[in-house]
Each structure stands twice: as C-alpha cells, then as structure tokens.
C-alpha cells in the first residue's frame, strides 16, 4: 500500500465561500461580505456599504448554514476521514474586538462538529480563512494594526477551549503567504487602502502589507503555544498557497528570477512558521519594497517558540518564470506567470501540472522535514447537468487521478511523509477570486447560479462515486 492506513482522505471548504447565513445567528459582517460577484474577465468589487442592485455571493454561498447535516451525510457516504472546514470569526465575535463571544455561533459549530463525528469524520479547522470581521477593517485597517494580535488570540482561546474535545487538527491562517502579494492586502490581511475598489487592482502599500504579515506571524505563533497548553494533543499547521515555479529557460537570469520568486512567494512565510525565524533573504525582500519592519520586544522569541506541527498547502498548478516580457502569460491561484509550452490549462487558464505536485512535495519535505498535507487541490470547471440529472465530470476525475498518482510516487518512491489530502470545494462553492458559483470544483453539485438563483439542492456527480472508490481502496483503485 502506497498510502499509510491512517491517511486522511477528505475534502475542503471555507466558511465565507460555503456557509451562507451571513447575517443569521448573531453573525457580524466580514470582509468577504463586502465583495460583489465577478467573472473570470470582470473583477469583483470591494464596497464599503451594500450597494443596491449588486450581488454579494458570499451572503448566500452554498447555504451550508441550513444544510450542514445533509452535507455531512454526503461526506460520510463518500467515506471522508477528514473535512477541512473554517470557522467564521465574525460568527464567534461579530465585531472581532468583542469581549464576549456569540453563544449562538459557538453552538452552531458544536452541532457541525458533532454531525461530522457521527459520520466518522475528523474536522480540520482553519481558524481564519479570508473572512476578517468587517469592523476590524473599518476601525483598525485590519492586520496593519498590532491590536489584532490580541483579538485573534482571544478568538483562538475561545474556540480551542470550547472544542478541545471535538477538534484535533487546526490551521492558523489560510494561504498566509498571499500577504506577500498586492492581492493579499485585502483578501488575507483586511487592509483597505484609500481608493481601493477593484479587487484585482488594489491600491497597494507594501509597508502595511509586510507589517500586517508580521503581526499574523506573531499571532499564529502565540496561538500555537496556547493550543498546546489547552490540549497537548492538538496538532497545529500552517497553510501556504504553494506556487510552484520553474525557470522558463536555462538562462541564468531566468534561474535567479525563479529562485527569488519562490523565496518571496513560498519560503518567506514557510520559514517563519516552521523554522521560527525570518529567512536569510528577508532583508532582500524588505529592501525591494522599501519596507522597514517594526518588530516589538518579544516578537522574535514568540516566532521561535511557536512553530507549527505540520505544513499544509494548496497546490493547483505551476508557472514558468522568465525575464523576457514578450512571452505569453497565463493565470493562476493568486499569481500568474509565463505560459509553459509543455502544459495544458483549465477553463480559467490555470496550467495543469501533476508532476509539479510530486516535485513540490519533495521540495517541501526536504526543506522542513515535518509531516505535509495537501489541503487544497482541484479543477475549477464548467459542469453540465444532463436531462436525467447526471453530471459526467470525467475531466475532474482525470485531473484528480493524475495528482493522486503524483502523491503516491512522492510517498512510495521518494519517502515523503504525507498525512492527508483534501481536494478543494468538495461540495460546490463560491470562488474567492471571481465570486462565481459556475467555477465548480465539487464532487457534489449545488443547484445555484452566480446570482444565487436556484434550489441549492445537492446532487452527486460522477466524481462522487469515483472518489468514494478511491477512499475505500486507500488510493489504490484510481480507475
């Protein structure tokens, strides 16, 4: 058997993209609730108030808020061992800086976790996944303020204590490295600079971004230490949007440019959270953007003593890096690059590269030597519902099969310690980058369109039955 007997097969979602019920149960608005829908050609807009006539897809998402028991049963039917779910911070602390948590929100997740356990599913909880309470952006400009460290730790203490016997696996921040990019200023850090409205073309302030990222590092490290105090059996991971990059050519300029892009985009954050210190190239990054980091007394000690237990990451595609501006470009998760002539691409232009996942697993395990987990991977595609209700998504099965085969080689041949796999959007959800429901990833179809029209009923795609077989065979039967 290639995968260990206790391998964690499952799926992944995010509360802001999946849950809905945005103003129910005492929940406050989040940054995600202030974003309109878009398309793969028209960017989402960030509005400071809800504007008449615009659609805010995170408000309804996939309506998990009302359908969690049904969804847990579907996951149980597939045989999930783990379900990556996030908690809406503003469902627990509606403003983010409240002194007392919202009991109705806490009880909601109690119910969800109980339903998952009834199905034999272990929750893997992302503590903060692109849904900062809106009040923290309005009053403090998000993570640009050091005050958020204490608010976050209070939030963590509340959920660690409440769910100490229901949740074992935790991730502190989703794709924390998006803070190294302009796109992450609002998405991951809740920083809203004057004049920003277009989500894809934000008014950028690198000083605020990197300072906010430092505050997240400190908050994460303190949360790790707190978690181990509350329950020594807790396993706490980081979560990185891994952007695999290759030099476009053997031109040394391309090789150096690729190395520096990997350093800044991937390893800047991973090194802090796994190794407990800023990497040797950090000063080069700060100098590049004119950043002068304000490091308070005790921060570096916190980073050193609050390292994570495992490393989790998203992997969708790879890019090539070139110093030639005339080359054709392609899109991607958070960041694009030069088009690789050896790869095909998805409907959204993301290059499909399963071998890159094997390469990534080896790169990460060689660098960090702690257990790894692939917590996002999948194919966003247009699905067609046939007249009989069937959804024949062989393209999704092909994509996942190739990536599981790559993981198998990394484990069996290369000796990588891989603990689990949770494909993204296991039940269809709203896209973070475009706000579309039509960009579907799931094994389960949700009857809703980009404007929230539909019954929201669930139906099984062909990939549902295929993935059930994969889990039953522990990854051996991929036909």
From TrEMBL:
A GO biological process held by the record = carbohydrate catabolic process
Entry GO terms, CC: cytosol
This protein's species is: Collinsella tanakaei YIT 12063
Work out whether the entry's keyword set contains Cell membrane: no
Would the keyword Hydrolase turn up in this protein's UniProt record? Answer: yes
Q: What is this protein called?
A: 6-phospho-beta-glucosidase
Gene3D superfamilies named in the record: Glycosidases
Keyword line: Glycosidase, Hydrolase
Q: Entry's SUPFAM superfamilies? A: (Trans)glycosidases
State the similarity comment: Belongs to the glycosyl hydrolase 1 family.
- State one molecular function term (GO): beta-glucosidase activity
